[in-house]
Structure formats: C-alpha cells, structure tokens
Write a structure and sequence with these properties.
The protein is mainly alpha-helical. It has one domain: MetI-like fold (Orthogonal Bundle), CATH 1.10.3720.10. It has eleven helices and no strands. Helix 3 crosses helix 11 and helix 9 runs antiparallel to helix 11. The radius of gyration is 25 Å and the shape is flat. It starts with a helix and ends in a 5-residue tail after the last helix.
Length: 269
C-alpha cells in the first residue's frame, strides 16, 4: 500500500450525523436580554421613551431590591409558587393520565374526546366566579382554577402525542410477540414523551396566566395581588416589577421542563 493510500485511509472524516440537533448557545439569549434592557434604559434616560409608558429598568431593579430588603418579595412569591405547584401538578398529572387512556382505549376515546372538545375552548378565567362559589374564596378555588386550566391542554397534547407514535414500531413489536404492557411501556410512552413535554410547556404557561387572575380576586399576597395593587395606584415601577416576576417564573418553569426533557429523552442523543 502506498503512502498516499495510507494517508487517505488515516484522514479523519467529519461527523455528519447531527440529526438537526440544536446547539446550546445560551449566551445568545442572555445577550438579547441585556441588549433590550440597555436600549430601554438609554431610551428612558434620554427622554426618547416617556416615563408614563415605560419605567427605567434601573428603577425597577431598585424596586426589586426594596421588595427583597423589606421581605415583601418572599411574602408575594411563596403563595404564588405554592398555588402554581399544587394546581399545576394536579392538572398536569390528571391530564397526562386521561390523555394516555384516551390514546390507548377506544371506548374511553369515544366517551371523553367530545367532552374535552366541548370544555377546551371555554375561557378558564370566565369560570373563576363559579369556582369561588363552589370552593370558596380561599386557596381551594385558586388550586381548582389552575388545575382545570392546566388539565385540558395537557389532555389534548397527550393523546395527540400517543396518536403520533410511529405505528410501524408498534406493528414490529407485535410481530415479535411483545405483550401489550411492554409495547406501552417501551414504545408508546417513550415515543409520546416529546409531545407530552411540549404540551406541558403550553399548559404551565396557561397556569401562570390563571394564577395571576385567581390572585387578583380575594388574595392578600401573591404576584397577581401585587400587580393589581400597583396598577390601581398607577405605580409603573411596582407594576413592571410584578411583570418581571412573572417572566422570571416562566423562564424558571421552562428551564425545569428542559431539564426533564434532557433526562427523560436522553435516549434520543
């Protein structure tokens, strides 16, 4: 074998099987946030943006510092996180269970899909007075509203994800004689998990919206109560501080779902 042929064999071939996997350029997202905040700060300081329209980001930061030092930040965050965790966990858990049952059993699908289709378009905020009548104005009504609002989109996303599992994989498993339980556990649930987790992102975003609505009615502490009080006083610094809390809460939930995706879907890498 000649030296040229040995060189050609030894040459490393570039890996071309990335499978369109996204690259984690996390610094770009941070840079976008920094750029937008900097532009807002410059615009408000130079008078290009009216202080009646948008407060200075530095003033909002000072308001956050004041909330932290006075202990009000904790008083507002703790009940909101508790309501979101309890209501969201109830709605998501029951929604995933019902969605899987709809996807697997024809009789359950025939009975529940029309019901879910009838409930899904109803604005859940409009049901808040009804939940207050049923469960009272205390925590139970807030848990119930968040759970119900999380439940319906989770059901739709879950049974849609089960339906989208490759049927050829199921037929192949049946041809090899796998039991029904093994097919569900090893093929259907792993195959549906990406769609289920994508549905959870949407469901938890809806849960945050309903959390604010629920806390604006009969809550002394919570992010929604804080925003309502700031809006009634037209205190833009406090109002935007509350909005930033909600944004950070959304980013936190997105990061949690992302961590679950990386752990549960590690088989895809």
């Amino acid at each position: 074998m000649s030296d040229v042929e040995e060189t050609e064999i030894a040459r490393q071939v570039a890996f071309r099987g990335g499978g369109f996997a996204p690259k984690p350029y996390r610094w770009i997202g941070l840079a976008v946030f920094v750029m937008l905040i900097s532009l807002a700060e410059l615009g408000t300081q130079n008078g290009f943006i009216s202080p009646l329209t948008l407060p200075k980001p530095s003033d909002v930061f000072l308001k956050f510092r004041e909330l932290y030092e006075t202990g009000l930040l904790r008083k507002h965050l703790e009940p909101s996180l508790t309501r979101l965790a309890v209501g969201g966990a109830l709605g998501a858990t029951i929604g995933i269970a019902v969605g899987v049952l709809i996807g697997l059993f024809s009789y359950i699908r025939a009975g529940l899909v029309p019901l879910v289709a009838a409930i899904f378009p109803i604005p859940k905020i409009a049901l808040l007075p009804l939940f207050v009548i049923w469960f009272g104005i205390d925590e139970a009504s807030k848990y119930a509203l968040i759970a119900f609002g999380t439940f319906t989109p989770t059901v739709v996303a879950t049974y849609g994800a089960v339906d989208n599992v490759d049927r050829n994989l199921i037929r192949m498993a049946q041809s090899f004689g796998l039991s029904w339980k093994s097919i569900v556990r090893k093929i259907i649930l792993p195959g549906a998990m990406p769609g289920i987790l994508s549905g959870l992102r949407i469901s938890l975003a809806i849960a945050i919206i309903l959390l604010v609505a629920a806390e604006m009615l009969g809550a002394e502490y919570g992010i929604g109560a804080y925003i309502l009080e700031a809006g009634s006083l037209y205190d833009l610094d406090r109002l935007f501080a509350g909005v930033v809390m909600l944004s950070l809460l959304g980013v936190l939930l997105s990061a949690v779902i992302g961590g679950i995706e990386r752990y549960v879907l590690r088989w895809r890498t």
